[in-house]
Structures are given as C-alpha cells and as structure tokens.
Amino acid sequence: MRALFGGRAKHDYLSDALTLLNGWTREGEQIRRTLVIDDTQHAALTERVKVVADALHLRPEISRLADHTQIRVGHGNTPLSEGEVLLAARIEDAYRAVTES
C-alpha cells in the first residue's frame, strides 16, 4: 500500500530520503550528482537511466564533460517529488551496476 504525503510531512520524508543518497547535493528544487566514469560507462548508465525515467515519466538532465557525468533531477520551479527522489535512488543502482561490471 502506498502512503500519501502532504505538506510538512512530505518535506520531511523527502529530506530523510535525500540523506540516504550519498553524493547527491540539493540545489533549490533540484538534486544533482557528478560521477567520474569513462565513456563506455556513461553510455551504459544513460541507457539504464532512460528506461527508469521513462517508466516514471521523468526527464533527468544528463551531461558529459571530459571524464565527468553530471546528472540533475527536478525542476527549478516545482518542489521535488517522491518520483524524482526514487529516480535518484535508481540512478545510484544503475551507477553501481555499470561500475562493478
């Protein structure tokens, strides 16, 4: 069963969930993560993230600069949602999968 979160309880729930996501930083209503991975790992990560993001109907921003991949989740004008925090957690799972293989 899924619990509904509203108001202050929702904010506290998301804040607690974000503390479990090591490496993610909050910038206003967005969270971001920078990963040091090679081009092959970046391609694999991007494909895995696309599958999860499509299922959640979300669009993270993924960019590549030299040997860094930067990921942003959320929009600057709306509060973070449960789905966006869930996406960040799934991105962490995908990151572990592509770097352990």
From TrEMBL:
<dbReference type="GO" id="GO:0008124">
    <property type="term" value="F:4-alpha-hydroxytetrahydrobiopterin dehydratase activity"/>
</dbReference>
<protein>
    <submittedName>
        <fullName>Pterin dehydratase</fullName>
    </submittedName>
</protein>
<dbReference type="GO" id="GO:0006729">
    <property type="term" value="P:tetrahydrobiopterin biosynthetic process"/>
</dbReference>
<dbReference type="InterPro" id="IPR036428">
    <property type="entry name" value="PCD_sf"/>
</dbReference>
